[in-house]
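re the bet — no i am not wrong, look at it urself. input seq straight from the record:
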Amino acid sequence: MSKYIESFLEYLLINKAVSKNTYDAYKRDLVQFEEFLKRPIVEADTSDIISFLSEIDNKRSLNRKLSAINSFFDFAYKKEIIDEKFKVKQAKIPKTLPKFLSKEEILRSVEHINYQKSSWFELRDKALILFLYACGLRISEALNVKSADIEEGWVKVTMAKGEKQRVVPIAEIALKAINEYLYKRPCGNEYIFVNKNCNKLSRISAFNITKKYLGVSPHTLRHSFATSLVLGGADLRIVQELLGHSSLNTTQIYTHIQKENLKESVLKYHPLKDL
């Protein structure tokens, strides 16, 4: 890895306070691009970027790598490392509705887990699933929640993207599941969700839990949270604040779900539907 990439990554951490996931992704993509070049990244031009990206079929991966490259060269130009400012446009991605689950599907997945008979592992799994659906947190945020962060039915999120903070209400059913799990948990730790060694639960373990019970990733529960609110009539700006989105544009994808729901209702109930 060249000194230029190292300087950029240091800038991301100190000046932009990006999350660890963003940092790791940018580092991986930029190192991959430099290895493709077989020379220092600052010697690249637009044709090099296009050649590199032409080997990538997935548009989302392409755009993520392009975002890293464009951000790097913007940084290099501002720091006068390069003389020419250039930027490659992102590829258009077809609009797709995020996958989500209904309340019934989520509750059904954990209905057999009960306080009297279940192990503390099962109670933890139930608490995690209900917590993710009740609060809509990113999995990294949920796993960083400590006991002290939950107070009077609210959770303080302190590890959001860009080190932002927000508070989100917790549904009573999720709060009850957390309390039951913590009461049976045989070890102490400031973090709510832990593994068998009483260390903070990893992202992979959390993924395995939601995959086991629901067949989806933890992020699908975040989509399910937002979708439930939008379909229930919640204001989009409130949903934006609860999700911790910096821009309303990111939240607006859920309006498409609302439109689809309205369309289905018309096709199902309108008197002209069979004519």
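see?? The domain at 103-265 is CATH 1.10.443.10 (hpI Integrase; Chain A). told u. also The CA atoms of residues 118 and 139 lie 24 Å apart. so pay up
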